[in-house]
Amino acid sequence: MSTAINVLIIDHNPDDARVLQQLLNSSEVGKFVVECIHNLQDGLQRLKKGGVDVLLLDLSMHESQGLNTFLTVRKETDNIPIVVLTGLDEHAVALEAVKLGAQDYLVKRDLNSNWLSRALLYSIERFTANTEIKKLNEELVKARDEALAAARFKAEFLANMSHEIRTPMNAVIGMSDLLRRTSLNAEQSKFVEVIKSAGGALLNVVNDILLFSKMEAGRFPLESTEVNVLELIEGVAEILGGPARLKDISLITFVEPTVSKVIIGDPTRLRQILLNLGSNAVKFTDHGYVLISVYNEPNAENTLRFAIEDSGSGLAPDTMQKLFKPFSQGMDKAATTNGGTGLGLAISKLMVELMGGEIGVTSAKGKGSTFWFKLPVTLSENQPKETFNPTGRILAVNFTHRELEHLRKFTTHYGMGFGSAADAKEAILEVERARKNGSIYDFALINVDPNNLDRTTVPSDLAKLVNQLELFGILLTNFDQAALGEDALKAGFSAYLTRPLKQTQLLQCLDDLSNGKKLSPFSRGPGDGKKEQSLDPTLRVLIVEDNPINQEVANLQLKKLGLSALICSNGKEAVDLVKKQEFDVILMDCQMPVMDGFEATRQIRALGDQLKTTPIILAMTANAMEGDREECLAMGMDEYVAKPVTIDGLLHLLSKLLPDRLVDFKTHDIRFQLERSSRSTNLISEDATKVPQPSAQSSEKALDTEMLTANFGWESACRLLTMFAEGTPAILDKLDKAIAAADSAQAKANSHELKGYCSTISMHEMATLSKQIGDETRAQNWSEARKLFEKLVAAFDKVRQEIESTIMISTTSNT
After folding, report:
1. Per-residue pLDDT tens for 759-802?
2. Which of 412, 446, 721, 722 could form a disulfide with 397 if both were Cys (CB 3.0 to 4.6 A apart)?
3. Contacts of residue 236, Cβ cutoff 8 Å, sequence gap at least 6
4. Residue 395 CB: number of other CB atoms within 10 A?
5. What is the pTM of this model?
6. Which residue range forms the structural domain that includes residue 96?
């Protein structure tokens, strides 16, 4: 060793210290510079000066004995290695010192030069290694804490982002849903559908990002319950059926008959994976078919293989390498055209892997793709018994090759004969050929596609064909063409079914016909015998919401459902009102001033027997993070719905929560209720299409009356503008005081509130200024915030003048 090691010896006995020094000076394994001190306090002072590499410490000093000596020194310094020196009778004390941090201990009488030297070198190495490990551990702990903090920040950011987006989206989707139910011309209907579609697409983006974040963080529990495989697949096909019909794509489902009917798994996640893969298949297929199938995996016990096959454009090798990675669609032309977050496949991969499975794809450019995933499954003990026993032979007419392949597999599994024909002429020839050979067809399943004239025949002509062939005729048509099916029944068909064709429905139909049973309702088309229901109009509803715009949206939605409601602006008002008045339903926002929805719910539930009626409490919140629903339910709420809320979604939830308050009604009753509701909210009137022109006080209008009228109807737009004009000065006053007091939290809250109001009704300049004020107050730039506030006040004065002029024109034009 070329560098000398500085050794400090603290020993009360000068002779012992001299011996130690001589041993080190004569060492052959290292070079040592030795300094001896015989008093503990002097030794401590020397240590404070630094420059010591290792300390040899005698535990028996005049001022201190045993462990106290070591602890006194260690208290003063922890940045150098310590080797303790003991006598023959102090082994136990020395061992305890090592446990407390000494690197080693030596017995004075047993020492020689090399032993002592090696002991000191080893102590230095050990101390250095331990110090580095300690430093690494500290860095790891710091990195872990930083990662956890970043994860918390990410979660908070995503939660806030979701809330910020969902709050205005509640108004956008809610009002567009209301507008869709009013009297619109073709062009207006198209505009509304675009709004609805764009709103839904935005929500899908938010949901994908939130879901991926939860899965990435490992906060994604899986459900374990019974899943009917066939019902799962056919339910997914029902959802994808609409988009497939719009593109004239044949949507096929096939569950291998030998697959166990009921498994244990998470139906929600399985459905989500299938919808992700299935919607991609429909999206990237311009013609042909999409096949959703389930098979038993060969040579793997209790393993299912799910596959989604399409006849689309296929994937290039470089594109396939990008699949299943976050935010990657494989940026080919089709992906660019169809858009999306690029998270669907990544989410599907994570879900499959969480379930213990494997996912992949086989594809070739121009030859379509097959996305598949394999899952190990547990079979349910409650397997339903097979009750169907169809007999006879079936002729499938006008089906694609892929459809025929799976129809043949399905029907022959049940022992039925199977044949096919491309069209009516070929069907006649096939039936005649079969009869000559002694094979008689019993059923004709005829596929009708009204969008393709070459493959379409009117029901009466098809019925003549069926009668001529002396077969049971089964017509297959689109779900939205029930009239065609009913015409077929009148013309002589035995039944009609709708696409996508369900194995259960076809099997039930064939079984009923072959065994002379009365046809099941679904074998005669959708809707037979089904009663339509609505909510009891006497339901007493309370809306608890602090945002006036969202109050209006919820109130209008309830009126569309034939319900009336009272409105509170915070939880305290709600609790006070519930004590005085009975309610059946409370729509409760969660984040409100004065008292939030959670505390209000807790206090309402605490009233217990004091209430004659226990209200259903439905949480309506812009939050959609994991745990939000559980938190709402834990606080005593009955159900949770994330904004934006649609009329259909609200009806579904209330129907689920209040099944005993549903009433039957006829179609004309629906129309009457909607028209009555529309009249009561002034959404439809003789002047609904009149858009008064505001006063041209400025070439640049601050108020977009055309947009407001298109979204809300003129009367409702006027009501919203009045609310805005009357409510905004109070918010501006609060914001003014917050800026003057340099109160960042209050200024942020006020600017955020105002931004939300302005954005919802397209006050773009004021919304932008409000956001900028919020940004500046967060950064403590109060002088800049004040300048922006003055601009905001001027913008509001301009808006208020236009509102006053607009309302005045409206009043004049209606008198």
Report:
1. 656 677 888 898 899 889 888 999 999 999 999 998 888 888 77
2. 446
3. 271, 274, 275, 278, 292
4. 22
5. 0.49
6. 5-111
